[in-house]
Write a structure and sequence with these properties.
The protein is of the alpha+beta class. The chain has one domain. It is 46% helix and 15% strand. It contains one helix and four strands; from the N terminus they run αββββ. The strands form two sheets. It has a two-stranded antiparallel ribbon with strand order 1-2. It has a two-stranded antiparallel ribbon with strand order 3-4. The chain is rod-shaped and about 75 Å long. 1% of the residues are buried.
């Protein structure tokens, strides 16, 4: 068996814990960023009533109908929050 001092063992466990927490935080950050990009890709904002609604991502039409005011809208970039 390899003799390991207690202080070294505590340091190793702390380092592993911090590494796991940082990896989980980074993974969550990347996942949320990817989800927000997808949300912005499928969202359309009405130019008349400013309602944001989802369009079908498989639909290739550039023009959609607003569910609130029935106005045809082209998909444009959403303004940042």
């Amino acid at each position: 068996m390899i003799p390991v001092p207690l202080s070294t063992l505590i340091f190793i466990f702390l380092a592993l814990g911090i590494t796991v927490v940082c990896a989980l935080w980074f993974w969550t950050f990347i996942r949320e960023r990817r989800r927000e990009t997808h949300r912005r890709h499928v969202a359309v904002q009405c130019r008349i009533c400013s309602t944001a609604y989802l369009r079908d991502p498989k639909d290739k039409n550039a023009v959609t109908i607003c569910p609130v005011c029935n106005t045809p809208n082209e998909r444009t970039r959403l303004r940042p929050i």
